[in-house]
Amino acid sequence: MTTRQGGPDTLPHTPRPPVARRAAAGRIAPWLLLAALALLAGGCGESATTPEPVSVVARLTGLSGRQVAWSTNIPTRGAVRYGFVSGQYDHFAWPTAAGGADKAYSQSHTVPLLDDVTGRTVYFQCVDVTPEGFFAAARETALTFAAAPATAPLLRFTSIDVQFGDAHVLRLPTAGSVVAIDGGNPYVNRAGETAPQHVMRWLDDRAITRLDVALATHMHGDHVGGLLRDGAGGAGLLEHCQIGLYLDVPAVTGNANNQAAVNEILAARDITKRVITPGMTSAGEPDALDWDPGVEVTVLNAGAQQEWRDGDLNNDSVVLKISYGSVDIITGGDCLVLGETRILTNFPAALAGVEYFKASHHGRANANSLAYLLAIAPRVCLIPVAFIAYNEGPAQGAKDTAQTLERLGNLRADVFRFDVAEPLGRAQDNQTFWHTTFTTDGASYEVRIEPSIWGL
Fold first, then answer.
1. DSSP secondary structure string, 179-208?
2. Is the CB of residue 265 less than 8 Å from the CB of residue 271?
3. Nearest C-alpha neighbor of 436 from the set 111, 445, 444, 77
4. What share of the chain is helix, strand, coil (3-state, %, to 5)?
């Protein structure tokens, strides 16, 4: 391995602003991030938000295998962004989850790079946050990896850009199985292609023709719709792909027509169905949930419950905890505060120490309660929405998610949306959208964004 760098970096530090301010316009945080980078390019100077920016010194201290190490003169949370073209970062990587290193403040940092770096030059940038929430990024360093050891098998959880809705594909590490969770909204259309068609093209481009497991978190059209139909008179995912197993819930609050349509397709295609209920695990219910020998799955919520009082079928949403080694994912539809409270009551221990959280109900304030987020304390959060496609428009999208963004900001979580990748400096422009893939080897993890084919 060889490196090219200019010695220690002195980093003008601008504060990571309270998210209530950045959410008000929906674009402020990425702008501030880019302003911080402009300061780096032009030397130390005054920040727009603090008259006397804090400075941090970062020094590359070593390379080992595929791990990059550096130090800072004050405690920070260590993370890096990197890519294979200078100045274009599409990966964001965190320290190992073991022992809580990914969430700790330290002066010594080590981050493994999980993408294929053998024989490639990686353009690497340290990114740090202080306990006070100040943010800074070091100058770019070029690392050339002559060889790097193979990673452990990787788990990949991809949130496909469907603008307003959910569509997620989980690719398992050992068995190579594929799980689809929701399929997007058939009535979302961009550039002549509906969201389910977009999802199916994403699968086709990766030669994924079989879904070992498929499920709809609940019966709202922006989740189950793409499993049923493509929105242009054609079939949805349940007919587009071979389906090994469909996971259903014992009862739903509403949308009986969608539930009947699911059952009709399952019967016509002779697809095996298993019913899941809260508390089930992959160890206890292997026929339904044992997707991979290295992965544990726990059902935290599934289907209508007797105590539901508001009649909102969002609370029927399947909520899953997916664990691989030291790394945990929580994902689940549009579960609202009532459903979250039930999870907090029944499975409090399952929520602790989660690395990746797929926000509920598109980040809206009627979900993602303070108690729920405090229990999860995610390091990374994905909000599955692009504000341009928000039902009531971008301004309303910013307003509706302001509370959730503020809470996540106070927890120092790194937040991604389909139209904003703030930790990577990608601002909303209403033209470029991204698929977001959370990747882990069971010890460390990173997020990679790739341009949505809707944005090309």
1. EEE----TT-EETTEEHHHHHHHHHHHTT-
2. yes
3. 445
4. 25, 35, 40
pTM of the complete model beyond 0.85: yes
Whole-number Cα distances in Å, 255 to 87, 249, 252, 314: 48, 13, 8, 11
**363: region left, alpha or beta (phi > 0 left; psi from -120 to 50 alpha):** left
The number of beta carbons lying within 10 Å of the beta carbon of residue 206 is: 12
Q: Which domains does the chain have, with CATH numbers?
A: 2-145 (2.60.40), 155-455 (3.60.15.10)
Q: Which amino acid is at 200?
A: M
Burial of 149: CB neighbours in 10 Å, binned 0-12, 13-18, 19+: exposed
| Secondary element (H or E) of residue 56 | strand 54-64
Longest Cα separation, the chain:
68
Q: What are residue 384's phi and psi, to 5 degrees?
A: -80, 80
Query: What are the tokens at 23?
Result: 């959410």
Tens place of pLDDT for every residue, the chain, 456 residues? 444 443 334 333 333 433 332 333 333 233 223 333 332 322 222 222 322 345 667 788 988 889 999 888 888 888 999 999 999 999 999 999 988 889 899 999 999 999 999 989 999 888 877 888 777 777 888 988 888 899 999 999 999 999 989 999 999 999 899 999 999 999 999 888 999 999 999 999 999 999 999 999 999 999 999 999 999 999 999 999 999 999 999 988 888 899 999 999 999 999 999 999 999 999 999 999 999 999 999 999 999 887 666 678 999 999 999 999 999 999 989 999 999 999 999 999 999 989 999 999 999 999 999 999 999 999 999 999 888 877 677 888 888 899 999 999 999 999 999 989 988 988 777 778 999 999 999 999 999 999 997 765
